[in-house]
Design brief:
Elements: E1 2-7, H1 17-24, H2 28-36, E2 41-43, E3 46-47, E4 59-64, E5 80-83, E6 87-92, H3 109-113, E7 122-123, E8 132-138, H4 141-147, E9 152-160, E10 167-170, E11 173-175, E12 183-185, E13 193-201, E14 205-212, H5 219-226, E15 249-257, E16 264-268, H6 273-279
Parallel strand pairs: 8-15
Antiparallel strand pairs: 1-4, 2-3, 2-4, 5-6, 6-8, 7-8, 9-14, 9-15, 10-13, 11-12, 13-14, 15-16
């Protein structure tokens, strides 16, 4: 349960509670949930309606009580990079799925985090099972909604071959036939845009920094493979598994405005051991 308090300024005087909350980022469905929650909306210490008007100096408080299905807790150490009342960021190791699925029950990041977040698991974005790095998790629906699509991520990948110049890959992606996993570049796919920046090369492989404009499944892996430079270890898309036994992809840095305080946040995590072995 999360309580958030607002002090109403002169500029906000005259607005209804509904208009104020919607401007802050509260969705229509969350506003409905607040109205149905006991003391979900409180103005100056008393229950309030969403149509009530605000005036300068008022104290508005909302209570987010959104209990949902939580995975069974997994008792393993977590590398926690950041945590407050609204968010938790963890360094996900490779070979760990983010969410439970038919083939992964009880061994996912959602299970590992369940011992700390008891209401519901809301990953702001996901990483593939074998991709390592930062996963940002919202502790309430408001934080999740306000962060959706608003987190800048710096990925690093090691690809086969030499790439010397920055480039933008603007190529649509779609599912391959009836496969539930594999994707490909195709004219009738969904728009996907990837920017990459070479960091260094040893003449056989290249370390890239990568930023995404879109977030399609396997986007980085598909795009780099489509130009003849698959990620090392990514056997699904033609990568060589000899140097590393998973795709050489790591989410190292993320940047975002805090959904409640507005503070600019930067979170970073180091490369895992297997990745360091490629770039040392």
């Amino acid at each position: 349960m999360r309580r958030i308090k607002f002090e109403i300024s002169a500029d906000e005087s005259g607005k209804t509670i509904k208009d104020f909350l919607r401007a802050f980022g509260v969705s229509g469905s969350l506003l409905k949930n607040l109205k149905q929650t006991e003391n979900g909306i409180v103005l100056n210490g008393k229950h309030a309606r969403s149509v009530d008007a605000l005036k300068s100096g008022d104290v508005l408080e909302i209570t987010l009580d959104e209990r949902g299905k939580v995975p069974a807790p997994l008792n393993i150490p977590l590398d926690i990079l950041f945590e407050d009342d609204d968010l938790i960021a963890v360094n996900k190791p490779p070979f760990m799925p983010v969410h439970e699925s038919r083939n992964h029950i009880g061994d996912t990041l959602s299970n590992a985090v369940a011992s700390r977040i008891t209401d519901c698991f809301r990953a702001v974005y996901r990483l593939d099972r074998d991709t390592s790095g930062i996963v940002l998790i919202a502790k309430n629906r408001l934080a999740a909604c306000k962060l959706a699509g608003r987190v800048k991520k710096d990925y690093y990948a090691v690809v086969s071959g030499i790439l010397n110049s920055p480039r933008t890959i603007d190529a649509p992606i779609k599912r391959v036939g009836s496969s539930i996993i594999k994707r490909c570049v195709a004219p009738d796919g969904e728009k996907a845009v990837t920017h990459y920046f070479p960091v260094k090369t040893d003449g056989r492989a290249t370390l890239l920094k990568i930023n995404l404009e879109t977030g399609k499944t396997h986007q980085i892996r598909v795009h780099l493979s489509s130009i003849g430079h698959p990620l090392l270890g990514d056997t699904l898309y033609g990568g060589n598994a000899d140097p590393i036994n998973r795709q050489a992809l790591h989410c190292k840095d993320i940047y975002f405005d805090h959904p409640i305080t507005g503070e600019q946040i930067h979170i970073s995590c180091d490369f895992p051991t297997d990745f360091k072995g490629l770039i040392k």
